[in-house]
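Deliverable D4.2, example record:
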Amino acid sequence: MLTYAEALATLVREAHPLGTERVGLSVSAGRLLGADITSPLSLPSFDNAAMDGFAIRSGEGDLPAGTRFTVAGMQAAGDDTAAWPGSDACEIATGARVPDGFDTVVPVERCERNGDSVQLMQDEKRGQNIRRTGGDIAAGAVALRAGRRIDAAAIMLLAALGIDELTVVRRPRVAIINTGSELHASGPLPDGGIHDSNGPFLEAMMASWGVEALPRRRVRDTGDAFHHAVADARAAGADLILTTGAVSAGRFDFVPSALEAMGARELFHKVAIRPGKPILAARFDDGPLVLGLPGNPIAVAVGHRFFVAPVLRAMAGLPPEQPQRVRLDEAYEARPGLQHFALGRVAPDAEGRQVACVQRNQAAYRIVPFTQANAWLAADSAFGDVVDAWPLDPAAAP
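Output generated by the structure prediction step:
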């Protein structure tokens, strides 16, 4: 049986990069940048006033209270006047271009206007209240690095730079197939039936990552529905097929043999982890990677967080995610020889240091502890004094 590290290395080797495509800024939110963005201009692109007041040609040194200047005119935001030759002051609005040779802006509330002249009411520093060209970013500098997820802040910057089209990583096409004759949608349940929670969970996590989701399928444990669902996913160009259930060793655990019959090459089956030990990975040589997750909800969550998420990162060309090392507040019993994944909470202690505690009453079928956690905690064989902490949502990881 493979260790977690061995299984993950096998998967990452099989996660083929997806390539890039060009999209408009208006539809880029949530996408991953496929190339560095170089700033086409400086921000600000010209010296401008940081507040309403008077632009002054001060000359040398600071400006003492009582200094009087003749006001040449008004410089408003958007005006293209580059200079006021022969003048030492002009009224100026916030964001307006500072005329050539003017080097200081004095706030209007610290000036006394009298007709066409203005007098300073207090000492003022030379060079103050001007936003300098390139003070935010210089032309030619890297504005955003490849691999950055495009959020609202990135869109603000790109829009300010006048960029309306950019290179992004192609979204992975992912198919989800939930197996189980007992699974039903919401609504009244028949005897022996349960609501399907794994499918909606995986759909939500795929949406968080920003994949191109193919129609999700729910299939029974008998018949040809699974074969048809896999065939449809391959025909639709899936990069990754996620299945849940039917990967263990029972009579109805048909997924391994079904994939083999369809020509998939098994990469591994069963990994020394808890929960989620029966996990299966396979590859269609002319098509998608397949990850078969166990059916218990928290085993599905572990499979997604620690197998699916690294595969999606590798497909996007991102480096491996790194956990945060945190101190555990108290010992947690773990079975030797397994990589353990536990739900927990990470919070600062009285001295401001990050400390982790394991959620109690955890089990592969219990969902409530998942809703109360804010991190995954991982340890090899035993939970010692220090553990690895991972964000619950891998899309939120750096």
